[in-house]
Amino acid sequence: MCLICVEIAKSKMSVNEARQQLREMRLGMDKDHIAEVEAKLDQVEKATSGKP
Questions:
Q1: Separation CA 17–CA 23 (nearest Å)
Q2: How far is 27 from 43, CA to CA, in rounded Å?
Q3: Domain boundaries, the chain
Q4: What is the model's pLDDT at position 50?
Q5: pTM summary value
């Protein structure tokens, strides 16, 4: 698990912070994991926004 995943799971990082970190780290990351992180961030964002 990457730092972004760990911090999001602990609710220690906001979605905006996580997206910023992902932009900074994406060059060194596996493309499949980038997609996984983006999906996870979308999920968290939907859950916290209250929109279906």
A1: 10
A2: 23
A3: 3-49
A4: 72
A5: 0.84
From the list 51, 47, 52, 50, the residue with the least C-alpha distance to 11 is 47
Distances (CA, A) of 5 to 17, 47, 52: 12, 16, 23
Determine which helix (DSSP H) or strand (DSSP E) holds 19, and give its type and residue range.
helix 15-25
pLDDT digits 0-9 by tens, 1-52? 799 999 999 999 999 999 999 999 999 899 999 999 999 999 999 998 876 6
The predicted pLDDT at position 33 comes to 96
- Here the contacts of 4-12 (C-beta below 8 Å, separation 24 or greater) are 4/37, 5/37, 5/40, 8/40, 8/41, 8/44
CA distance 13 to 51: 20
